[in-house]
Structure to design on (572 residues):
């Protein structure tokens, strides 16, 4: 089943990419309306929009998901229920497809909710308490966005249709459309894990690694960004756009800081996804929706590769995810390490890799734009932090000697996993340049002074150097020198957000539940309610049982009593 799914998705991806090229060259789009059912004067119509953007995104999603499924053939080979896993992944991809091609809020909601539901099933795939808690946190955070979406659908009734694409430009300044815009931004912030809804994203790492590769590259977390790209008209020159710029900038900064205090391999990569989502959202809120889409696609390629490499490393390390136990992996796993390092460099924005084209352009546009100092600081400091934690990760995992048990036999994974990674490796190298030629028919001419041009490179080099040096000195001493556990704990725990969204909210309902349990379930209601009813039923059934067992004796006794009663009645 894995092989069939891989081939079908890969072929469809190639076909969609060819169609995207045709649509892009001819500036062409197709809007389909399919009448599902018509009853009297009411009709249910399914609308589908095919333009270069939706076709290109679908092509990338299918390419990544096909390679992830191919990779899963070996990664999940020990799982008895691998077919169930593949079916869940296919449902996940199908929900994303529905969301991409819908210009209608109701049909988007089907894909949106499908993503939420299937992601819950995938996060709790390895069934243990941690997975259940992570799944519940993921589902409940996403429910907030779903409710906002339902409110937006209710407010769209003002326009007589849910095809939002007709009304955006015309009704931009109407109060109803502003309210719909606020609700859509709230929904997108929950799905793309912006502050204050960030805590679910690292928790969702409880899912199998192939799922993480899919979720963090092109499906679940990018759904919010894609939705806002479609609603980009409402964000430009508005209070909503400025608010989103602030929150996404803080998300980018917070995730970059948090990743530098983390020792869990998958969690570091998850926090880097959060940082990149903040970057996409912030440039989108400034009005550059094409740039946000460009970074969305190029980021998807190297982030899926990063997770695949992390999965291969975890497999080899006997399911250990602690980077302090790694070291010298470049010697023992050369091919996997090469893929891992190239994906990391693409994330940092190394010239001529996939991340460079989009990241460098975004930062130069920021330099060129009219922007306040705080947002400017968040953009560049977060970029430095990205390189900082990437080099720290490489230092811990690739250099020095192996720090885990000597019985571990390390080697590159089988060819199935490696060929899945190689496919994405090629795309991580050529994907950025290919996309920049496709999406921007004329090159952006960004004219800046030399010190501004070199600022991006300076920030990256400084971040990488600091990351290497501080890792060399060892974070143990750095943490010790702070001597304030609260500060390091605050920075390393995403500004206490997971604790606020779990313990902070759940504490009081649990206390109330305990009191209720003590007073009601084990108090007077037990004896007057369930327990009493139980005792009465037991006694009644014993009586009936007694009658059944002694029916002839009782019948004769009743007959004698009846005769006696009649005799006395006739006598008197």
């Amino acid at each position: 089943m894995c092989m069939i799914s891989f081939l079908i998705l890969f072929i469809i991806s190639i076909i969609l990419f060819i169609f995207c090229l045709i649509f892009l060259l001819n500036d062409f789009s197709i809007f389909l309306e399919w009448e599902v059912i018509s009853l009297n004067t009411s009709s249910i119509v399914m609308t589908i929009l095919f333009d270069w953007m939706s076709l290109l995104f679908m092509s990338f999603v299918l390419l990544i998901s096909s390679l992830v499924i191919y990779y899963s053939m070996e990664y999940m080979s020990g799982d008895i229920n691998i077919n169930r896993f593949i079916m869940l992944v296919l449902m996940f991809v199908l929900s994303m497809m529905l969301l991409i091609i819908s210009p209608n809020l109701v049909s988007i909601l089907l894909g949106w909710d499908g993503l939420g539901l299937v992601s819950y099933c995938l996060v709790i795939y390895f069934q243990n308490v941690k997975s259940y808690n992570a799944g519940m946190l993921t589902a409940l955070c996403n429910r907030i966005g779903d409710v906002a979406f339902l409110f937006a659908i209710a407010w769209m009734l003002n326009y007589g249709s849910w095809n939002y694409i007709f009304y955006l430009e015309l009704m931009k300044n109407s109060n109803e459309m502003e309210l719909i815009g606020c609700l859509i931004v709230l929904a997108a912030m929950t799905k793309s894990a912006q502050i204050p809804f960030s805590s679910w994203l690292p928790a969702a790492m409880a899912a199998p690694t192939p799922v993480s590769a899919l979720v963090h590259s092109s499906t679940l977390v990018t759904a919010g960004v894609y939705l806002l790209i479609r609603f980009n008209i409402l964000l430009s020159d508005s209070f909503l756009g400025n608010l989103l710029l602030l929150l996404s900038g803080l998300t980018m900064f917070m995730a970059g800081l948090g990743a530098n205090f983390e020792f869990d391999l998958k969690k570091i990569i998850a926090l880097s996804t959060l940082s990149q989502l903040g970057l996409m959202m912030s440039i989108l809120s400034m009005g550059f929706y094409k740039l946000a889409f460009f970074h969305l696609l190029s980021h998807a390629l190297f982030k899926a590769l990063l997770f695949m490499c992390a999965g291969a490393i975890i497999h080899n390390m006997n399911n250990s995810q602690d980077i302090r136990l790694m070291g010298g992996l470049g010697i023992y796993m050369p091919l996997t390490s090469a893929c891992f390092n190239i994906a990391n460099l693409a994330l940092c924005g190394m010239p001529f890799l996939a991340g460079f084209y989009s990241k460098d352009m975004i930062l130069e546009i920021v330099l060129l734009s009219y922007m306040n100092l705080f947002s400017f600081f968040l953009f560049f400091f977060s970029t430095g932090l990205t390189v900082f934690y990437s080099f720290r990760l490489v230092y811990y995992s690739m250099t020095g000697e192996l720090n885990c048990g000597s019985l571990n036999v390390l080697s590159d994974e089988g060819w199935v996993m490696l060929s899945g990674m190689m496919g994405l490796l090629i795309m991580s190298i050529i994907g950025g340049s290919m996309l920049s030629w496709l999406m921007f028919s004329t090159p952006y001419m960004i004219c800046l002074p030399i010190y501004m041009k070199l600022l991006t490179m300076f920030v990256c080099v400084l971040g990488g150097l600091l990351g290497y040096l501080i890792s060399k000195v060892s974070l143990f001493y750095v943490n010790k020198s702070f001597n304030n556990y609260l500060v390091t704990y605050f920075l390393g725990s995403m500004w206490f957000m997971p604790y606020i969204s779990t313990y902070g909210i759940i504490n009081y309902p649990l206390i109330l539940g305990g009191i209720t349990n003590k007073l009601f379930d084990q108090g007077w209601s037990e004896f007057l309610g369930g327990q009493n009813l139980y005792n009465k039923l037991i006694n009644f059934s014993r009586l009936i049982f007694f009658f059944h067992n002694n029916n002839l004796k009782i019948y004769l006794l009743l007959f004698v009593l009846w005769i006696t009663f009649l005799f006395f009645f006739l006598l008197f």
Remarks:
- The chain has two domains: 132-201+217-503, 523-571.
